[in-house]
Amino acid sequence: MPNSAGKRFKPTKYIPVSTAATLLVGSTTLFFVFTCPWLTKVISPAVPLYNGLVFLFVLANFSMATFMDPGVYPRADEDEDKDDDFRAPLYKNVEIKGIQVRMKWCATCHFYRPPRCSHCSVCDNCVEDFDHHCPWVNNCIGRRNYRYFFLFLLSLSVHMLGVFSSGLIFVLHHRESLAALHTTVTLVVMCIAGLFFIPVLGLTGFHMVLVARGRTTNEQVTGKFRGGVNPFTRGCCGNVDYVLCSPLAPRYMLDPKKKPHVKIQPPFIRPDFSERQITIKISDNGIHSTIISSKSKTSLDGLDEKEMQPPLPPKAERYNQLKGQLTSSEGEEQSPPLFTIMTSYLLTLSCHQIIPVCP
Ligand SMILES: [Zn+2]
Ligand SMILES: [Zn+2]
Hints:
- The protein is mainly alpha-helical.
- 46% of the residues lie in helices and 11% in strands.
- The protein is built from 10 helices and 10 strands.
- Helix 2 runs antiparallel to helix 4 (146-173).
- The chain is elongated and about 80 Å long.
- It binds zinc ion (2 copies).
- The site of one zinc ion has 5 residues, from loops.
- Residues 120, 122-123, 133, 140 line the site of one zinc ion.
């Protein structure tokens, strides 16, 4: 159910998927609560176990088809398609296995849709190997989640058949007490399973044919290869193998929850010195001894080990005296003390080198 950013929230689009999930989970729960205890006792514990395993498989595939990224292509940036947008033709042709396949320009996503890709009007995204938009799973069915959708249909047909036949056994053994709660609930569950079994089975059969022929629902409905050859088919067994066993296609959309991890590598380990970062060594006999001014680490590389030695800490008494001079000089702009004059002078002279003062 991945949504494109900035899309408006429509609560109505969740009605079919909520109905499907409620019917599936609700009716199966009723079956396990009201029908299965008797089946376990009289028939075999294998019956509820089998139904439980199939139900879990249905639920897992349903969840995957619903929540998985179907293969959404990210839209091109405005800068990326700036030149193409006005001059580009509407279609471009590519050759696949000697057959010309047309790629249409997507005005929304700003790129030529790759072969088999189509723009879903509900999700407002271009989806790789687009099959159709399924309201029952509230997601597009595309390259990445078609396998799970197909397995969901297959397992749902098997599950419905299992629930219906198990319910039938229960009802046939309780013909005398049809008004009893357990029998009534079983009959209701059987009705739900029976009602949906025909359309689900029909859809499953349709997709089995599509898988065998290597087509998508979109290609079949739009008659893309009518009278022509399908360049995407791999032969019946190859098509089944591709749908069920091929490695999962990569995601093209970044997960918005995952923030990009910024890792700082060397040479940033060594801090850069800015022009303002100046070390002033205050010696005992004078005011300044060494001024180091540097712009970057490269300028520091040329310094000798000796010159790189950190300055000795000033004696506390002298330091306080100088500190007092500095503080007072900030307020007296008209007559700066000797320290300030000397510092300014030396700053002007020294650039990327050490000037020894007062040796
Ligand atoms: Zn598109
Ligand atoms: Zn869609």
